Give the backbone structure.
Amino acid sequence: MSLFVKFNLILMLVFSVALAPAGYISYNLLQKNARTQVIQNARIMMQTALATRTYTSKQVRPLLLPRLDEEFLPQSVPAYSATEIFNYLREKYPEYSYKEATLNPTNPRDRTVEWEADIVNAFRGDQKLTEIIGERDGPLGRALYLSRPIQITDPACLSCHTTPEETPASVVKAYGTSGGYGWKLNEIIGAQIVAVPMAVPVAMAAVAFRTLLASLVGVFVFTLVFLNLLLYVVVIRPLKRLSEMADQVSTGNLDVPEIPVRGRDEVAVLTGSFNRMRISLVKALKMLENE
């Protein structure tokens, strides 16, 4: 096996040993960054929903409140406004979702399903819990959800949720008397849940990982070629000259020229030793001939 082959095999072995942990760490880091990005997107969407609720509560509802006794206008309900805004968003991004999941809702579309009820009950069981982050499989693949509790902190919210008799007639007419009543002040009645798909950031992380691996392989190939070139110039070529000189001397050709000595490295020292050995051999043969 030639020196070139041995050298390349050693380099490839070292690269493979180094690439395995580097690839593992990089992959996990990119996946972690993808999850962080998803959570950040979910928080932005949650803040958008909260801003919509605040705007509706402070600016829209006061304008529509006088008409509530005669006609129910869902646009005056903060939860309705936030949900409708996200429904428009879903026309372009159908994989994103927002829901104000409620255990006892006025609007049936807000009623919790099984996994949403578990989240609401977790908030109800621990009043200090302000946020829950988790993952679940949805119709469009793996999704990450961010949830925050819906707590009744404004007494004005109870005007439509105490008893049917105390609720404006237009609200009762619109939704009936089967749900949305019996709420209490400071009670957690539901949870805001934003679901963000992980497919896009995970795919981006995979592309970044493949690009990183390709870059590492490219750097390795370039380094290997460069080191091979240096190896040939610094080691292989001088050793080939020494080998050719040794072959010539071993066959009796003592007229081979000396090999120029360049530098002070080990190859240069070896070249000088070969040159001196050839001269000594020539002198020894001449002494034998003169005897």
About this structure: The beta strands are 97-102, 132-138, 141-151, 188-197.
